[in-house]
Structure formats: C-alpha cells, structure tokens
Design a protein that fits this description.
- The structure is a single chain.
- With about 300 residues, the chain is an alpha/beta fold.
- It has 3 domains: about 5-90, Winged helix-like DNA-binding domain superfamily/Winged helix DNA-binding domain (Arc Repressor Mutant, subunit A); about 95-165 and about 260-295, Periplasmic binding protein-like II (D-Maltodextrin-Binding Protein, domain 2), CATH 3.40.190; about 165-260, 3-Layer(aba) Sandwich (D-Maltodextrin-Binding Protein, domain 2).
- The protein has helices at about 5-20, 20-30, 35-45, 65-90, 105-120, 180-185, 200-210, 220-230, 240, 275-285, 285-295, and strands at about 50-55, 60, 95-100, 125-130, 145-150, 155-165, 165-170, 190, 215-220, 235-240, 250, 260-265.
- α1 crosses α2 (about 20-30), α1 (about 5-20) crosses α4 and α2 (about 20-30) crosses α3.
- The longest helix is centred in the N-terminal third of the chain and has 29 residues, at about 65-90.
- The radius of gyration is 34 Å and the shape is rod-shaped.
- InterPro entries: LTTR (IPR050176), LysR_HTH_N (IPR000847), LysR_subst-bd (IPR005119), WH-like_DNA-bd_sf (IPR036388), WH_DNA-bd_sf (IPR036390).
Length: about 300
C-alpha cells in the first residue's frame, strides 16, 4: 500500500458498490461522472489494488474491493451511531446549576425532592448555596434562587411555587401546658435574631409581646426548629418543616398574617438555558414540594 485511505476514499468506494455504477454513485455524492471516474482511479492507484471490475453492466467489487466496502460500512455505522448519541445528549440537559435557598427550605422542601431530580436528570450537577442572605442573581452568584418573598424583584423572572404557612410549635412534652394565650406569654420562646431578614415575624412577635419572652435568638429557621425539638422553648415555624415532625405539637391555628409566597427566580438571560429551565420545571411540578406546602 503506497498511501493511507481517508474517509472520502471509503465513501467513494461504498457509493459505487451500492449504486453499482459510476453514474448512480455520482448522483448520490452530488458530483459528476468524470470526477468520480478520476477519484476511483486515484484510490486504486493509492493502494495499488484494483477494487472494481469494470463490466458493461456496471461496476462489480473485487475481493480487495469487498474488504474496503466492509470497512466503509463499519465506519458509516459507527459515524451514525456517534451522531445519534451526540444528538440525544444535546436533547438531555447537562451541566452545572447553582441554587441558593435557605436552610429551612432545603431541609424541609428541596432535599426530599433531590433524589427524583438526580434520577430524572443524571447529567445535571447541582451546587446548593445555603444562606439566609439574598444572593444577587444579576451578578451570577446563583442561577436559581428559591426564596420566601411577597415582592419578587421585578428584574428577575420565575414562578410562584406556593404559599408558606406558619404556626406556633412546642415540644410535644411541653405542649400540654401551653394551650392558652396566657401560657404562651409565660413560656420560653425561640425567635429570629435581628440579623435575620424576617421583618414580618419580628413585627408580629413584638405586636404580641412574645419577643419579651425570647430566651434564644437564632438567624436560622432550622436552628429554631432544632431548639424547639430539643425542648428549649416554643417558636413560630413553617408548617412544611414542623407539621410532620412527631417531636413537635402545633399550638393554635395557622397565623394568616405571616403567610408568605415562595418564589423560584432566575435572571432573564438564563431562563432559556436548557439545564436551568429543566431544574426549574422539575421543582415547579414536584408533588413532594406542593404537598408539603399545602400542610395546614
């Protein structure tokens, strides 16, 4: 063999074999009969072997030609298979998605839903930033923010996931003695620290006088929940986090004044990005999230 064949050479040999003539092969390859004649002669000269018998009825492969044709078919199948897999990969979103949310939302709402997301979208990798501070989506500190707010930033886009409802919860062992309003004013409370951006709860507790009973302040909903579970006092907690906890007992009804919307937001420039859109759509239709938000 004087030289190596390239893919173009294999394509010419395969086209002639399948068409049975130069005219038919030329149509398939969108070229002219004379051009194809020169090309097949050049291929045979390159490898020093005749690949076709030129007959009046057409071109018939020689033994050497059959070997080249078999290889060409394998290359074609491999090429098509690779293209199909790559096309399928393009259809399946992949890559890195950064989500920012609070500790309570992660523990009570998002974490239970993550297994389903990993199963349905194995090519997406999540980075979750747990913080009670508001990440700036405009500066790409996160791709998706899932936050409680009744006034989402008008420069962002997203959807409302539901309504966060809240109530007073006590350790189950303490609950029997905290039934009346008077008892609530005597019980030790656990409240949100001033560093926690929670103006509605700060205002409500001050209006009720419960802030004077606070013995523990925390900048974390999950921290307040843990303190109540440990028997340190009572606190206002979201129903999605506390309602299913057997260690806690709800005292009184839902506090309607503390209802707040839960929003999932992203920057407008990112909303059509496949991986981000896929994650957002998953959370928006996730039944685990909607069921927990519906707890009253």
């Amino acid at each position: 063999m004087n030289d190596m064949l390239d893919w173009g050479d294999y394509r010419i040999v395969l086209a002639i074999a399948e068409a049975g003539s130069l005219t038919g092969a030329a149509k398939r390859l969108v070229t002219s009969h004379p051009t194809l004649f020169r090309r097949i002669n050049a291929v045979e000269k390159k490898i020093g072997v005749r690949l076709f018998e030129r007959l009046r009825t057409g071109y018939r492969p020689t033994a050497a030609g059959e070997e080249i044709i078999a290889t060409a078919r394998k290359i074609t199948e491999l090429t098509h298979d690779t293209e199909r897999r790559l096309a399928g990969r393009d259809l399946r979103p992949s890559g890195h998605v950064r989500i920012t949310t609070t500790d309570g939302l992660l523990f009570g709402l998002l974490a239970p839903a993550l297994a389903g997301l990993r199963e349905s979208e194995p090519n997406i990798t999540l980075e979750i930033n747990v913080s009670n501070e508001i990440s700036d989506l405009a500066f790409r500190e996160a791709d998706i923010a899932i936050r409680p707010t009744s006034t989402p930033d008008p420069h962002l886009v997203g959807r409302k996931l539901g309504l966060i409802r809240q109530a007073i919860y006590a350790p189950s062992a303490m609950a029997a003695g905290t039934g009346g309003r008077e008892a609530l004013h005597e019980a030790p409370w656990i409240g949100p620290s001033r560093s926690m951006a929670y103006p509605a709860l700060h205002g409500w507790m001050a209006a009720q006088g419960y802030d004077k009973q606070c013995r523990i302040w925390s900048d974390s909903i999950l921290g307040q929940h843990a303190a109540v579970r440990a028997g340190a006092g009572i606190a206002v907690l979201p129903t999605y986090l506390a309602e299913a906890d057997p260690a806690l007992t709800r005292i009184g009804p839902i506090i309607a004044a503390l209802d707040v919307e839960l929003w999932m937001l992203t920057h407008p420039d990112l909303r059509h990005t496949a991986r981000i859109r896929t994650v957002a759509e998953y959370f928006s239709r996730c039944s685990l999230i909607s069921q927990r938000l519906d707890r009253r």
